[in-house]
Design a protein that fits this description.
Strands 1-2-3-8-5-6 form a six-stranded antiparallel sheet, with no helix packed on it. It has a two-stranded antiparallel sheet with strand order 4-7. The longest helix has 13 residues, at about 35-45. It has a domain at about 55-145: Golgi alpha-mannosidase II (Immunoglobulin-like, Sandwich), CATH 2.60.40. It has about 140 residues and is mostly beta strands. The mean pLDDT is about 90. The protein has one helix and eight strands; from the N terminus they run αββββββββ.
């Protein structure tokens, strides 16, 4: 329900949590994460690489508020790039290890963003701009370019 106000600074509990009280909810009230969570579950179901915890390879993103990793299962490879800053726009380069994507010796790879449907051709060094309204890319590796 987008409630994240801490009970005290640096604390792990939330001020308005349901821990000690019953709180009726309207799960369709705005803002909510229903559509995003639903889409993330669809993506996870469609990609075997996202259905297990093995074979994760972290990709290099020099910005300390960006995490990038690739997961593979057989022919299915997915690259996830995500902002760790929920309040600000984050810009960074992301360096891809082509061998970990299953395309060793290739300089470029074709990708489809599973969140937006956009397609890209990326090389080993790529620029990303992640905003609070679009904080991630979930990129399916299509083939080498």
């Amino acid at each position: 329900m987008c409630e994240h106000e801490p009970l005290k600074p640096g604390g792990g509990e939330y001020r308005n949590s349901e821990k000690y009280e019953y709180r009726p909810r309207d799960f369709n009230a705005q803002p909510n994460l229903n559509l995003l969570i639903g889409r993330l579950n669809e993506i996870r179901r469609a990609h075997p690489a996202l259905q297990q915890l093995r074979s994760i390879t972290f990709q290099h993103a020099p910005h300390d508020k960006v995490i990038a990793y690739a997961k593979s299962d057989g022919d299915d490879t997915v690259v996830v790039i995500c902002s760790l800053d929920q309040d600000n726009t984050v810009e960074s380069d992301v360096y891809l290890d082509m061998a970990s994507l299953g395309v060793p010796g290739s300089d470029f790879v074709n990708l489809r963003d599973e969140l937006t449907g956009a397609t890209f051709t990326w090389g080993t060094r790529n620029f990303v701009r992640l905003t609070p309204s679009a904080p991630a890319h979930i990129l399916h590796v299509l083939d080498r370019a």
